[in-house]
Amino acid sequence: xxxxxxxxxxxxxxxxxxxxxxxxxxxxxxxxxxxxxxxxxxxxxxxxxxxxxxxxxxxxxxxxxxxxxxxxxxxxxxxxxxxxxxxxxxxxxxxxxxxxxxxxxxxxxxxxxxxxxxxxxxxxxxxxxxxxxxxxxxxxxxxxxxxxxxxxxxxxxxxxxxxxxxxxxxxxxxxxxxxxxxxxxxxxxxxxxxxxxxxxxxxxxxxxxxxxxxxxxxxxxxxxx
Amino acid sequence: xxxxxxxxxxxxxxxxxxxxxxxxxxxxxxxxxxxxxxxxxxxxxxxxxxxxxxxxxxxxxxxxxxxxxxxxxxxxxxxxxxxxxxxxxxxxxxxxxxxxxxxxxxxxxxxxxxxxxxxxxxxxxxxxxxxxxxxxxxxxxxxxxxxxxxxxxxxxxxxxxxxxxxxxxxxxxxxxxxxxxxxxxxxxxxxxxxxxxxxxxxxxxxxxxxxxxxxxxxxxxxxxx
DNA sequence: ATATATATTTAGATGCATCTAAACGACGGT
DNA sequence: ACCGTCGTTTAGATGCATCTAAATATATAT
Lengths: 225, 225
What we know:
Two copies of one chain form a homodimer. Chain A contains eight helices and eight strands; from the N terminus they run αααββαααββαβββαβ. By secondary structure, the first copy, chain A, is an alpha+beta fold. Among the domains of chain A are: 4-63, Winged helix-like DNA-binding domain superfamily/Winged helix DNA-binding domain (Arc Repressor Mutant, subunit A), CATH 1.10.10.10; 145-217, Ferrous iron transport protein A (FeoA) (SH3 type barrels), CATH 2.30.30.90.
């Protein structure tokens, strides 16, 4: 039986593997999970002995297929919960992450199934992240670019907002920006401010937000949802 | 911050105090939670040092008002979750207990509030147990008797089925017996079998089930729900 | 009243997840 | 090729929840 903490490590490594090329360094995981590096080393030894990760000392760590399956299941739980909280319990999309984190390790298969059924087997969660299917195949992460890389005049659709930074999410939610929102870049000010137009309104976004907000060209409509 | 385990001990002591007069003995708690007595002693010391229980060595344990409040909150979570699973996720009433046990320590105040709102502030759960209100006053447990104490011919309403024994619950659920069900005692056979009539049908119940199933006279209608 | 049975507590150990401090390996710059 | 820096691992400690075995207190029966 895997502990909650082990599941968290596997989920984190999975997420980090989408951002960086494996192997994932000890310090990267430590920072992501807000623990010290020796803690990561010791956990990595346990996960390796259970065949959930491969580990090269002093280099880093990579999920095995088994480890990836565990990670994908936890992520499926997380994103189904987020979707459920948003659509059935009236949570705002910037509030769902922490609650889903707390519950994701504790729901049964039964609960997972009923949730998916109730939601009509959704394929994306409220942040725009793909929801793995019941077979636990790792979902495709569609190609996106960050808003900050776009020039003035570009017409875009919001594809995904990272669910890890509560401040940024709240900012976006307050500004009415969510996956599916159409926007046009009005101005990329030299120092730290980004201006976009949404439904004719000018919305100002700090560069930090623009650097993490993922978008795709407005032309192609939602195909994957 | 209290651990999940501490919350479980407090909840258990609360439940045991409804059954036996305090103080509650070490071995009683040990058996209820399926741990060894020394484990209970050591946990009792911790809970005492936090002012959540009073403890008399070699005698047993009793909740303080603070301890009771914690227990009642956990029980509120548990019973709201049970109600939600039964009414919104199509769980059968004999399936909800384990899932609620797994989740009760991990939901936020926010989640609790939204659940209560969604359910219309229910006052009893699917087993017939009272749901504490948001002020966390300990709920009244209505006077009931067990089915096994009744004589042939008595007309009764099912008030409550303990949610701790999965086997018995499944038996009752299969037999169509649930809180609110009206029944008449047909036969109290001398050795271990109880026969009741429900909607004109004869239903056979093992004595073990009849000894835990709580009922009240059929005359007074549901007043408290 | 004393011996015996039973329940409780104490003592000491284990595994988990974490930490700090210290040792060690890898890697880039001169 | 060496040295120093930086990141990683080892070593050892802590707190939690649990166990078994042993000591001790309480209750019961004669």
